[in-house]
Amino acid sequence: MIHVLLCDDHAVVRRGIRDTLAEAPDIQVSGEAGGYCELRELLRTTPCDVLLLDLSMPGRSGLEVLASLRETHSGVRVLVLSMYPEDQYALRCLKAGARGYANKAGDPVELITAVRTLMQGRKYLTPEVAQMLADSLAQPEPEAPHAALSARELQTLLKIASGRRLSDIAAELMLSPKTVSVYRARVLEKLHLSNNAELTVYAIRNQLV
């Protein structure tokens, strides 16, 4: 039996994933978490072979959780689930320790295949990600400026570009407005931009939103 944990801050999403995995007789969802604190406690008490991890959650981002898991639970195979474009996040997640990356908009049945693939010790990549990796190896391109952003800085950029106010971002990420302002300032400096309007234009031009 493959023991799976789900970590996503949306209960409806977790329910959909659980119902999908329930169709596989060799997969059992052993527990669910709405954030990193719950996940950390689950990992102490619940068997886990494969973790399905949402990339965007309040508090610690999925990339930050990946970094922590690599240090504390390196044996857990992590499949990242995200609505973000594969070409912007898949490589980041794989470098951070994920064993696979799947888009939430994809075929739900593919989750069963992904879980089994990770359990076999292999990485799971969608055809889109596999093609992207092949293209990058064949014709390496100069790294985009936003590739130098930290996980939290990139998260801040995306939320600003989506029209969120700093106060809203602070509430969503469970941070102080001052901390979010610091992240915004770092993003502006690293991307050589001046204001939120330029950040939004940058995000659109680079297909980040």
From TrEMBL:
Residues with PTM 4-aspartylphosphate: D54
Domain Response regulatory: start-end pairs: 3-119
Keyword Transcription: yes
Keyword Transcription regulation set for record: yes
Top-rank lineage group of the source organism: Bacteria
Annotated GO MF terms: DNA binding
PANTHER family: NITRATE_NITRITE RESPONSE REGULATOR PROTEIN NARP, TWO-COMPONENT RESPONSE REGULATOR
Record protein name field: DNA-binding response regulator
Domain named HTH luxR-type: residues: 142-207
SUPFAM superfamilies cross-referenced by the UniProt entry: C-terminal effector domain of the bipartite response regulators, CheY-like
Keywords: DNA-binding, Phosphoprotein, Transcription, Transcription regulation
Pfam family, one: GerE
